[in-house]
Specification:
2 domains; alpha/beta; five-stranded mixed sheet; five-stranded parallel sheet; 17 helices
C-alpha cells in the first residue's frame, strides 16, 4: 500500500504552515527533483545537497543552526544518525523510500516511507513530491525514470511533452539508455549537473528551479538551458571514456564486472554503473572510485543478486559501510580492506551460481 492520503495531506500541510523550511536532499536525480518540486511549490526555504554519503550525520547540525529554519525536510536519504536528531530540536519531516527506519525515539521527527506499509512499494521520493506539490510533471517524470521507475503519469508526459519519450519502449532501461530517448538524455543532463562541489551543484539546482520546460535544456533554447547543457557537455567525454574502460573489464571478472579508478574531482560511478547494468544484465556490476583513502562503490544487479545481504556479509570485519535498494547499493570501503571486501563479494556470487548450477561446479569424467 502506498503512502496514505492523510500522510500526503500531512506533508503538504507541514510545508504550507512553514515559513522557513530547510531541505536536505540526496544529490541524485530523484532527491534533486524532489527538492525542486517542493521548493517550487513552497516558494520559500533553502536547499542543501547531502553529498558523498548515504547518511545525514552530525555535520549537518551546523547547517540547521546557520539557517535557523522552522522545519527541516529530509529527502531521499536512507539513513539519518542519532547525533543529528538529538542536536536538532526543530520539527523534522523525513520522506524516503529506502529500508524503513525506526524514529519512534524522537517525538519531533515524522517519518514517511511507502515501505512502512508495503516493503515492495519503493516508488521514488520524487513520485511522492509530485503527489504533494503537483509537479512540474516533467520533473517528476525524469526523477522517477532516473531512479528506474515508470510511474503511471508517464502517459500524461507523452501528451504534454511530445517527443520527450521514445516512440517505442517496453521497460525503464529503454527510457534511460535508448539512443532516441530524450527523457534519458535529460536525466543525464541533470545528473551531470549535480557533480562537483556543493557550491557548483547548487548553482545548477537553482537554475533547475527556474526551468519551465524540459526542452530548454535539451534544445538549449534559453540561457538557463544552455547553462545546464554546457556543464553536461564538459562531462560527457569523461563519462564515455570511463564507460569504455569498464567494458574492457568484463572479460577479466565474469560473473562480476569490477572496475576501479582514481579521480580526485568527482564521481561518475552511479551513472556508469547504471548503463553497464543495461548492457550486461547477467553480471553483478561493481564500479568504484578511489578517493581519500577509500573505494566508493556503486553496485548494481538486474535481479539475480540481492545486494544488501551480500554487503552485510562482505562488510564484516571491514572498515566501511554501505546500503541502498535491493538491486542498487552504494558502499565505501577503506583502501586497506578493499581486497577483503571484493573477495567476500566474489565468494558469495560464486556460491550462489554453484548452488543454482551444481553440475557445472563438479569435475567431469
Amino acid at each position: 500500500m502506498p503512502l496514505l492520503t492523510e500522510e500526503i495531506d500531512a506533508l503538504r500541510k507541514a510545508l504550507d504552515e512553514s515559513a522557513r523550511p530547510l531541505f536536505l536532499f540526496d544529490d541524485d536525480c530523484d532527491g534533486t527533483t524532489s527538492f525542486v518540486q517542493l521548493y517550487r511549490y513552497k516558494k520559500e526555504g533553502k536547499g542543501v545537497p547531502v553529498k558523498a554519503s548515504p547518511m545525514v550525520d552530525g555535520k549537518y547540525v551546523r547547517k540547521v543552526e546557520e539557517y535557523q529554519p522552522d522545519l527541516v525536510v529530509i529527502l531521499d536519504k536512507p539513513v539519518v544518525n542519532a547525533e543529528f536528531f538529538e542536536n536538532v530540536k526543530t520539527p523534522i519531516i523525513w520522506l524516503d523510500h529506502h529500508k524503513p527506519q525506526d524514529v519512534s525515539k524522537w517525538s519531533h521527527v515524522r517519518y514517511f516511507n511507502p515501505r512502512v506499509h508495503d516493503d515492495k512499494d519503493n516508488l521514488p521520493t520524487t513520485y511522492w513530491a509530485y503527489k504533494i506539490s503537483g509537479g512540474p510533471l516533467w520533473l517528476a517524470a525524469v526523477g522517477a525514470v532516473a531512479d528506474w521507475h515508470t510511474p503511471e503519469y508517464l502517459k500524461d508526459v507523452e501528451e504534454q511533452y511530445p517527443g520527450l519519450l521514445p516512440q517505442s519502449w517496453s521497460k525503464v532501461e529503454d527510457l534511460l539508455f535508448h539512443a532516441e530517448s530524450r527523457i534519458g538524455k535529460l536525466a543525464r543532463i541533470i545528473s551531470f549537473n549535480l557533480k562537483g562541489s556543493v557550491q557548483d551543484t547548487m548553482k545548477s539546482v537553482l537554475v533547475l528551479t527556474r526551468i519551465e520546460s524540459p526542452f530548454e535544456a535539451l534544445n538549449q533554447t534559453t540561457p538557463r538551458g544552455k547553462f545546464l547543457y554546457k556543464k553536461y557537455q564538459r562531462l560527457a567525454n569523461k563519462y564515455d571514456t570511463l564507460l569504455e574502460r569498464c567494458k574492457h573489464a568484463v572479460r577479466k571478472h565474469k560473473p562480476i564486472l569490477l572496475y576501479t579508478y582514481e579521480d580526485d574531482s568527482m564521481s561518475l560511478t552511479s551513472d556508469v554503473s547504471n548503463e553497464l547494468l543495461y548492457l550486461y544484465p547477467d553480471l553483478l556490476i561493481m564500479v568504484a572510485r578511489k578517493h581519500a583513502g577509500e573505494f566508493k562503490y556503486s553496485i548494481r544487479s538486474a535481479g539475480k543478486y540481492e545486494i544488501p545481504p551480500m554487503l552485510v556479509k562482505a562488510l564484516e570485519g571491514v572498515d566501511g559501510y554501505g546500503g541502498g535498494h535491493t538491486f542498487a547499493c552504494g558502499a565505501a570501503v577503506a583502501e586497506k580492506d578493499n581486497e577483503k571486501f571484493v573477495a567476500a563479494i566474489e565468494h558469495q556470487v560464486r556460491a550462489k551460481l554453484e548452488k543454482a548450477h551444481p553440475d557445472k561446479s563438479r569435475p567431469h569424467g
